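Figure S7 source data.
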Amino acid sequence: MKISEFGEDIMKDSFSYSLNRDLYDSKYRKENDVNDPGKFAGISVDKGSVVVSFENASLKVKEYEGNIYEFTWFEGPAMPLESLQESEGFHMEADRAVSSRISISFADRDIIVTGSDGKEIERGHVEVSGGYIKHITSLNGWDRLFGSGERAFSLNLRGQVCRLWNHDANGSYGPDSDPLYLNIPVILQEGNGKFVMRFYANAGDGYIDAGYSSEDHMMVSFRSLPMKYYIIIGNLNDIYPSLSRITGRPYMPPEWALGFQQSRYSYMNDEEVRRVIDGFRKNGIPLSALYLDIDYMDGYRDFTFNSKAFPDMKSLAAYASEYGTHIITIIEPGVKFDPGYRIYEEALKNRFFIKYPDGNTLYAPVWAGMSAFPDFSRPDVSSWWGLQYDYMLESGISGFWHDMNEPAIFTGWGDNTMAESAVQADGRHGDIHNLFGYYMARAAFDHLSQGSRPFILSRSGWAGISRYAWIWTGDTETSWKELKQNLITILNLSMSGISYTGCDVGGFTGSPTGDLFIRWLQMGVFLPLFRVHSSKNTGRREPWELGKYSGVAAETIRLRYRLLPYIYTETYKSHMTGIPIVRPAFWADPSDSKLLDIDDEMMFGNSILVAPVMGKGMNSRDVVFPPGKWYDFYDDHLFSGKCEISAGLEKIPFFMAEGSIIPVDEDGKIAINIYYSDHGMKGEFYSDNSGSDYLLEEFSISADGDMRWGREGTYESRYREYRFRLHGIALSSVNINGQEVPVNENSFSAGEKFESAKLVFQK
Ligand code: GLC
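Tokens for the predicted alpha-D-glucopyranose complex:
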């Protein structure tokens, strides 16, 4: 966004805000008054916790269930984290504190954490210097580092410096831009196929120096307290559930949120929205959600509608809903300064806005002009804010899109966010800056989740944001390079424990060529959030507006709906375990070193490997397969090792793991696809009534054809007849409850559910 788009007032306002910010921030500058821990004084155990004493500090280490270790050097503002279950704890053995899983000792200046196998897990110390509190740990030459939230760097972050400061990219960004909107102080270290995760419970300004300043050290530093971090050890399938024990598990979203979503800045009025929905209907392309960007509002005031452009939102939403389309509106954290505007008046009267230290309300310009910002860290403000969504719900709106919540501010110069010295209930804004968008999502979620499962899309956030909201990668450029970057950024978000991720399909700022758009759309099929969005003055992206590419676009969107039963099942699993839906290829086998550097493939859930085509004019690509055999989705061809895969524009290279059982929708009927393996096969299918009534069906088949169909829950699935389709082996006969059933094209049907069956294969 260029300031000139706003005319003179915004210009004046941004200058006056920037001046205020600088004046307040320098008058109320906060120097770090933390002392360096100093000399080591001793190590002991107190009620199961380790206490390491230093001249000026006392480190406390607690052991929790799930292989979680909490290291508290200095306390600070409380972070929104779950309470953990303490486990047995430590006792002293000579000069070491020992638990059943690790031991802690001190040597030179370092705390040494050793595993029960005698191998060192971490060696590091905390020091205070140059205004930062730093945790410095050793790195081996071969260690890789992943995570850190939204990062436009390479997948392995080794050698980079990642700033932890949520920040608006100012309308457009590409590879290497840093920091971005959503930073997460989570870093996963891999060495020789073994993992250690560190999560820093700090939402202030900081850096992860991933071996940049010193090749053999990682340094994570913060300007403010706390210096408290968690170390989690184990394999990937243990580490992520443990991380979610601390930060909260991803919530269970409504199924429609997993369908296709169409957005644009902006669909301007009632007539245009109806035209777009009609277009989807006429072309027989499903549409689960349509977004209204800022122009739907009355002068960019939150919780209002422009009554000329949208005279009857309720009837428009009802019209959309007839086609199964949900209307989602953007909501901004800035409340327009406008005496007479109810929301502003109420918040002002109740003193809900964030203030400067001298008690003056902080005003700063955003889209609406001068605005004030509710303090979402306060429970009373959050409850009041949550109530405002009711008017939107009554108007037929069914989802919400939180933008500009870093918070972004239009400034004349300097940092484009809120003054650090601003005062929030939880402390100084600068110390909890990275929680602003998170708290806004929590405020909306807490209210909206009382009735049903909400959908909130948020640009900013912090660790554990998936417990309240979905996120997307913001205003990315439109280019092949950026398509590839988006995949990497999303993989690092996953490695930071985030489940519900996506990007603007086609990029935000430009008009993609037909083939770039199709390739981006194809990648979108395999991201939790599947949303097309673009800036003003970009070419139309509705599928029928794409000339000769329209047919492929429509097919691509339909493919997403075919895969929905699988995607919903994987979403449920992520909700139950905290394991992200999208994962790097190495998740399948971290001991396979050639997988660890693969940044252009992804696992989509447990069973699907996707290798998106991300280059201009490319009609084939190399795919490195994790161990085992992989079935080509289109023709069941079996692949393993490394292969060149042909991929004309209508084809997305994606593969089903042998041994998996994958539910797919076939024209409204359910097909349970069984990918044969001589190690046996298994898989699940989850469905529910959008509430607590659910059905989890578990299928397993031995290599000899003994089939079991287990069920948990009471939901009556909308699918009456189940079709079971075998891939990779011919089926001679099927016997259910002593009765032979017909086999047709390698598949058989069941009108009624059975417990067990005998499948006879032609070997
Ligand atoms: C920001 C958002 C973008 C949105 C625009 C207008 O740039 O990131 O998605 O379209 O604001 O609201």
